[in-house]
Write a structure and sequence with these properties.
Layout: E1 4-14, E2 16-17, E3 20-26, E4 35-36, E5 39-40, H1 48-60, E6 62-77, E7 85-101, E8 113-120, H2 131-141, E9 149-150
Parallel strand pairs: 1-7, 6-9
Antiparallel strand pairs: 1-5, 2-3, 3-4, 3-8, 6-7
Length: 158
């Protein structure tokens, strides 16, 4: 019997510079312990791009310019959060460029990440990154895939 899907919709920025991608390290949730793209939930009365700019600033300290819409992608991860449902993660991806960094940046209050980190793209893999990061790398450096990616054996890291 197929379990229930919990849907999550978010908007995320893909920022590249000198063979590195600007990522965050997740502190909780299904991507805990992995690199993830800066971004997140669209708040009430907020446009998609307003949410992207706010989330990117909150998580990395960078103000951004939005350069290109990379598309919408979805991922299905099993057993989340309590093994009674699967996570259907829908991600709106945008290529972005940084404008500046805040001085003395640290993530605000109850953030689920520990701030931005530049990671060489050749170091990004399924063992250390979220499905969103893997998809962004694939989109930018190889063939795009528009089908949902299902991770049947996903493990949440401690």
């Amino acid at each position: 019997m197929m379990n229930k899907w919990e849907r999550y919709l978010g908007v995320y920025g893909v920022c590249l510079s000198d063979e590195k991608m600007l990522l965050i390290k997740k502190n909780r949730g299904p991507y805990k312990g992995r690199f993830d793209l800066p971004g997140g939930r669209i708040e009430p009365n907020e446009s998609i791009l307003e949410a992207l700019r706010r989330e990117f600033l909150e998580e990395t300290g960078y103000h951004i310019n939005v350069v290109e819409n990379l598309g919408a992608y979805d991922f299905l991860l099993p057993s989340y959060p309590d093994k009674s449902s699967s996570l259907h993660h829908i991600a709106l991806l945008y290529r972005v460029e940084t404008k500046e960094i805040k001085i003395d940046f640290s993530p605000a209050g109850d953030q689920d990440s520990s701030g931005g980190v530049w990671v060489y793209t050749n170091m990004i893999n399924e063992a250390n990154s979220s499905p969103l990061v893997i998809a962004a790398k694939r989109i930018l450096f190889s063939a795009q895939s528009f089908d949902m990616t299902e991770y049947k054996h996903w493990n949440i890291l401690n």
